Amino acid sequence: MNKLTGIVSSSAVTAATALFALGILLSDQNLSYFVCILLSWGFILLVCSFASEVCFENKALAYGGIAFSCIYGVFVTLVYFIQLTTVANGTASPEILKFLSYTTLGSPMFNLDLLGYGMMAVSTFLIAFSLHIKCAADQWLKALLMIHGIFVFPCVLSPMLNIFSMNMKNGDRIGRIALLLWCLYFIPIGILSTFHFVRKQHN
Questions:
Q1: For 54, which of 2, 15, 62, 68 could close a Cys bridge (C-beta 3.0–4.6 Å)?
Q2: For residue range 87-118, what is the model confidence (pLDDT) as tens digits?
Q3: What Å distances lie between residue 45 and 48, 51, 152, 155, 174, CA to CA?
Q4: Other CB atoms within 10 Å distance of the CB of residue 178
Q5: Rounded Cα–Cα distance for residues 121 and 152 (Å)
């Protein structure tokens, strides 16, 4: 069952990331928001699937990966659920809607979303150390997961340094390009994870 969960969750993560990229290209915010919620849920299950395989000596790192993935899941689900409900339906005063809107660069929701993805980066870094490598594809997967951990620094520090502010020139375009590049990076992680669990299923 653990291997099947790994296959399903990694496939879901891959599909959700691809749909997220499509939403960005189509400028369809509702699609992007919805699939990001699904992505966060799939990612938590994926990390749990990896953790179920680790040896006793690596359990602490794997559990840390699960913990940080849950923090990411809570933050991202909260941010995007609010966008799809309160903000989309306009069920608050203009001042509150401005406060809650993700589309405002440097807003609390925007910064919280960045923090969430920073927690995701920590999770991938920790789970990478706990992986048991058996083939070249797993080695690539481990490397991609570890390098993805670097994203914690821009995700956490940029809101503190107010890099993405409302007055930033071409901020929306830069943000879209950054998100598309992230999707291009993360899709191979999802694909390699799927192959990892498929191999496990047939061994």
A1: 62
A2: 999 999 999 998 899 876 778 999 999 999 99
A3: 5, 10, 21, 22, 31
A4: 12
A5: 5
